[in-house]
Structure formats: C-alpha cells, structure tokens
C-alpha cells in the first residue's frame, strides 16, 4: 500500500526524517503477552530500519520507560502507548493510546484496576480447568507470565508447558475460546472512558484493527466521541481493508496509523516491521499530536 503521491512532497512543518521512513506503531513485549523484552524489540526495529516505534502492551505502560531509553540510544523515535480493552454497544474494541504521559495518575490507577482484574481472572480460569480434573496451578501461570497483565495466552502456554495440552492452539480450542469451559469474560471499560483516559494522559486515541472487530458502524460514533485515529494498516487487514479504512479515516477526519501487532514468538514468527505505517502518515500523526497539545 503506497501513500498518496503528495507523500513525496511533505507539507511544510512535518518532521522530514519521519516522512522519509516508516514506522511500526503496534508492538507487544513480555509486559503483556509478547515474548520480547523492550530492549530486544527496539534493537530488532532499528535493524529493520524503522524510524519510529510505539509500544502498545495490553492494559499497561510498564515497558515504555525501558523501550524509550533503548530507542534513544538507537536513534529511533519512540512513542509511548498502550492498547486498552474497551467496549462499545456490546462490541469489544481495542483502543490504542499514543504519546501518553506514562506517569499520569488516572491512567496508572486504571491500569492497576485492569491488572488486578486480569490476575483474578487467571485464578477463575484455572479453577474452571481444575474442575475438569486438570491439576494446573495458578502459580505456574503467574510464574510463566511474569508480568502484571496476564491473560489467556499465558494460561494456554502453561497448559502446553505442563503437558496438559499439545499446543497453545489446542488449549484455546479445548478450554479458553469464548464458549469453552474455562472461558471467563474480560474486564473492559467503555470506549468513551478509554478515549477520555487517553486524552487525560495527553495522548491520541486510535481504534485498533477495525477489520477484526466487524463493527464498522460504531466508528462514526466513536469519532464524534473524540476518537483521533484509525489503525488502517495491520497484519490481519487485507489491502482491500486498508484502502477501505483509509477512505473512512479521510471522511471522518481521523489520523491514520498502522503496525504489525507483533507478539514476538508467542504467535508464530515475529511480525515486527512486517506491516508499516508510511512516513507520510507518521508525520501527520505527529502533527495531530502537536495540535492536540496546543488546543
Ligand atoms: P485475553 O486478553 O486474555 O482475552 O487474551 C487475548 C489474546 O489471546 C489475544 O492476544 C489473542 O490473539 C489471543 N487469542 C485469542 N484467541 C486465540 C486462539 N484461538 N488461539 C491463540 N491465541 C488466541
Ligand atoms: Zn496480545
Ligand atoms: Fe488488539
Ligand atoms: Fe495488540
């Protein structure tokens, strides 16, 4: 997917070094369900020639300080972010926050709540698995997860590691998928609360991977509720979908973002850099941030 022809001639005031390069603005580390350390992710991104990276771990910003430090050393622009679990009209949606003040008290308080509930959910899932006669221990999941935001992938990995399943896929199929015996719903905040929380922390709020949500009808309403951008480029979007969401973003005056949604080795091969946001859109996003700070 190429940016419009005007990308070759960046508007005055856009940061030139970003226009010329490309970015990956959707990345996970082991602070949620990825496998890489922030430093490892930064290093890989730099090797792949990314000019900017954003860390968007689920419901946490814990890895941002370390990744910021690494990116600085590598001359890569770093955008502190998160991916918040939210809902709108009964649909689960993920809201990406970019350019966050990762020390903002309300954001940290909400993250604490997310993490407490995620940890309780692990106990609930393990109890259901135990009821089925499988002696998985919650401690095994927490030890393996080694993070404050554990989730189903950690339970799946523990089941596979302890020999109760052949693979993570089997664990999801037998126990963890929605409708399966150990499925426990996840704590979500309203999309409006997520957008407001991101704004309070000085960030821009972007709807993640709309192509996976199958609820495009909510996008105009989210836009009028303050949504700033749409993730048009994503590893699981077809090029047709990317084109569709680019047009939708333009019609709703939303910024365009994109990234690989790399989880390291936890979902097959590392996707980092596989889907990139063209520099033109990155520059526009940075400009949108500047204006949001001014207003
Ligand atoms: P959670 O946030 O705890 O509900 O877990 C969500 C994570 O589990 C996401 O990263 C998904 O990609 C992953 N996931 C969901 N369904 C499956 C599945 N069938 N197989 C493998 N991973 C899955
Ligand atoms: Zn994930
Ligand atoms: Fe997501
Ligand atoms: Fe993600």
Task: Give an overview of the whole structure.
The protein is of the alpha/beta class and 295 residues long. The protein has a domain at 19-110 and 187-294: TIM Barrel. The protein is 44% helix and 17% strand. It contains twelve helices and nine strands. Strands 1, 2, 3, 4, 5, 6, 7, 8 and 9 form a nine-stranded mixed β-sheet that branches. Helix 5 (138-145) crosses helix 6 and helix 6 (152-161) crosses helix 7. The longest helix has 27 residues, at 105-131. It is globular, with a radius of gyration of 19 Å. One fe (iii) ion (FE) binds next to loops.
Q: Which stretches are low in confidence, meaning pLDDT under 50 for 5 or more residues running?
A: 1-12
Quick one: how many beta strands? Answer: 9
CATH superfamily of one domain: Metal-dependent hydrolases
Give the structural class. Answer: alpha/beta
The gyration radius over C-alpha positions equals: 19 Å
How would you state the average pLDDT, rounded?
92
Count, helices: 12
